[in-house]
Write a structure and sequence with these properties.
By secondary structure, this protein is mainly α. Helices cover 51% and strands 0% of the residues. It has 2 domains: 30 residues; 101 residues, Cytochrome Bc1 Complex, Chain D, domain 2 (Orthogonal Bundle), CATH 1.10.760.10. The structure holds heme C (HEC).
Length: 136
C-alpha cells in the first residue's frame, strides 16, 4: 500500500518533469519539486536568487540593479534594469553570468555558483525588470 503510494508520487514527479521539458512550464514558480532541473530558467527561485544577489552581485550592481554607489569601473557595471540587459534571452544572460565578460569586471561565476544558483539569481535579475516596468 505504502509502496503503491510511493510509486504514484514518483509518477507525478515524472509527469511534472516532462511538462517542463516540453517547455510548458507556464505555471511559473509553482513548479516546486523540479528545481533541480537546471535546463529551465523558469525553475529559478527568485527568493534564493535574491540572497545570492545580495551576497555576490550587489557590490557592483547595486541594490536596485542600476549600479552600486561610488563604484568606478571601466566599463561600468551593466544597468540590470535596462532593456539592453532585460531584452536578452535567458540563455544569453545565463552564459554571461556563467562565463563572465572578457576585459570587464564581470567575472565568471561558474566556479562559485552552481548552475541552479545561476538560474536562481537570474530569476531575481528578471524581477528587477518588474521594477522598471513600474516606473513612469
Ligand atoms: C566586480 C564587479 C561585478 C560583480 C561582483 C558582478 N558584476 Fe555583473 N557586470 C559587471 C560589469 C562591469 C558588467 C558590464 C560588462 C559590460 O560592459 O559589458 C556586468 C554585466 C552584467 C550583466 C549584463 C551582461 C550583458 O549581457 O551585457 C549581467 C546580467 C550581470 N552583470 C549579472 C551579474 C550577476 C547576476 C552577478 C552576481 C552573481 C554579477 N553580475 C556580479 C560587474 C560585476
Amino acid at each position: 500500500m505504502v509502496r503503491a503510494m510511493e510509486e504514484r508520487k514518483m509518477h507525478v514527479g515524472r509527469v511534472a518533469l516532462c511538462a517542463v521539458l516540453a517547455g510548458m512550464s507556464g505555471l511559473g514558480f509553482s513548479n516546486i519539486g523540479v528545481k533541480d532541473l537546471t535546463a529551465s530558467p523558469k525553475g529559478g527561485d527568485p527568493v534564493s536568487g535574491r540572497e545570492i544577489y545580495v551576497n555576490t552581485c550587489i557590490r557592483c550592481h547595486g541594490i536596485d540593479g542600476k549600479g552600486a554607489l561610488g563604484i568606478k569601473l571601466v566599463p561600468p557595471p551593466a544597468d540590470l534594469t535596462s532593456s539592453a540587459v532585460q531584452d536578452r534571452l535567458d540563455g544569453t544572460l545565463f552564459r554571461r553570468i556563467h562565463e563572465g565578460k572578457p576585459n570587464t569586471a564581470m567575472g565568471a561565476w561558474k566556479h562559485s555558483l552552481s548552475d541552479e544558483e545561476i538560474w536562481d539569481v537570474l530569476a531575481y535579475v528578471r524581477m528587477l525588470r518588474a521594477e522598471l516596468d513600474g516606473q513612469p
